[in-house]
């Protein structure tokens, strides 16, 4: 019984403690709520009383419900795979171009590289939007993929690309009335058919052609927006080998047998080649080699080791110049102006070598005839002095291959040959008493020195005449 009483007492005490704890918790929660309400009330009263702008919060306009560009332009409400005004007249698309740079002109590949800003203007009423002012909206390439744009391409282009650093260089500007400006920055390498018959004194005309790929002139009408003023060029454009003379625009129709007629826009520019580089690298060296070959005409004809290497050196140098020029040129099937000059110069150098070969051959032939004539002469008793003169005035075949007589002037050589001939003539006349032998021997004597003398005048005169004719025709 005593244990039962103790258990009931403990249960009663635990219940009383739990009831007291719940009551205290309710009281604390009620106090905290009252305190929070009181602080909030005081804060609101302080704000209303002070009116401080620092404590006021402005509304976040970025979290407002601003209309999206797609919704404003109603892109989802139209089919932009069709051109504007489909089924009606051709849509006019104006074009203007600003040339940023003209990079390279290649004669070997027959092409040029140009970087330009290509701008298109047209009107698409499907893109019109309500606006109180005529303020336009500008977009990048992400919206271009969702609407209709003209499908322009470059005719006869080899390579082309739209710049994409740091983003695609594409701009789209839309006006409230539906007018559209579409601009791209593009680099294109296009073909240029060059006529190199006057190279390097030539003038080349190249053109960049723009055309729609899919739309004929029944659907799309291309035109230069401002005529010739539609083409602008940077004043800093310059080329190392060419002088840009003119830029102009034209418009023509192109016909394809399977698809029809297309509008085609032309950007035509004229280039004139700078000649000074080729004067220094080609024309002056070739002229100097020709003049150097003339030096051999003033060297004694018996100086074989001096005249032969000089002629061979000039011939090989001219061959090297011709090879170097042709290595940097396309293999065209016609003759260029520089080829004419170099090959004529090569012929002059080669003829100077042949001239010495003729002089040397005639001199050798004359010596042989003189030697045979001396062998037929009778005994020269009593003519020791004359024989001494004859032997000293002549030179043997070995002298022609040595330099022993380089110091003798041509005048003295002529006198010695004349003395030899005269002595032989006198001897024949004294023995036979006739003049037949004299005439026969006199016909054997050839003045080989005259060939060099005439060459000193003929070669420079002929080459000077050639230069006058050449530069008057091609310059």
UniProtKB/TrEMBL annotation:
SUPFAM superfamilies: Neurotransmitter-gated ion-channel transmembrane pore (SSF90112), Nicotinic receptor ligand binding domain-like (SSF63712)
Record key words, sorted: Cell membrane, Chloride, Chloride channel, Disulfide bond, Glycoprotein, Ion channel, Ion transport, Membrane, Postsynaptic cell membrane, Signal, Synapse, Transmembrane, Transmembrane helix, Transport
Catalytic activity entry: chloride(in) = chloride(out)
Region of interest called Disordered, as start-end residue ranges on this chain: 35-68
Domain Neurotransmitter-gated ion-channel ligand-binding positions: 75-274
InterPro entries named in the record: GABAA/Glycine_rcpt, Neur_chan_lig-bd, Neur_chan_lig-bd_sf, Neur_channel, Neuro-gated_channel_TM_sf, Neuro_actylchol_rec, Neurotrans-gated_channel_TM, Neurotransmitter_ion_chnl_CS
Leader sequence residues: 1-19
Biased composition, class Basic and acidic residues, residue ranges: 36-48
Main localization (coarse): membrane
Gene3D superfamilies cross-referenced by the UniProt entry: Neurotransmitter-gated ion-channel ligand-binding domain (2.70.170.10), Neurotransmitter-gated ion-channel transmembrane domain (1.20.58.390)
Domain called Neurotransmitter-gated ion-channel transmembrane: residue spans: 282-417
Subcellular locations according to the entry: Postsynaptic cell membrane
GO cellular-component term (any): postsynaptic membrane
Molecular functions (GO terms): chloride channel activity; extracellular ligand-gated monoatomic ion channel activity; transmembrane signaling receptor activity
Parts of the chain that traverse the membrane: 275-298, 310-328, 340-362, 457-474
Similarity-based family: Belongs to the ligand-gated ion channel (TC 1.A.9) family. Gamma-aminobutyric acid receptor (TC 1.A.9.5) subfamily. GABRR1 sub-subfamily.
Complex formation: Three rho subunits (rho-1/GBRR1, rho-2/GBRR2 and rho-3/GBRR3) coassemble either to form functional homopentamers or heteropentamers. Rho-1/GBRR1 subunits can also associate with alpha-1/GBRA1 subunits to form a functional GABAAR. Interacts with SQSTM1.
Protein name: Gamma-aminobutyric acid receptor subunit rho-1
UniProt source species: Ameiurus melas (Black bullhead)
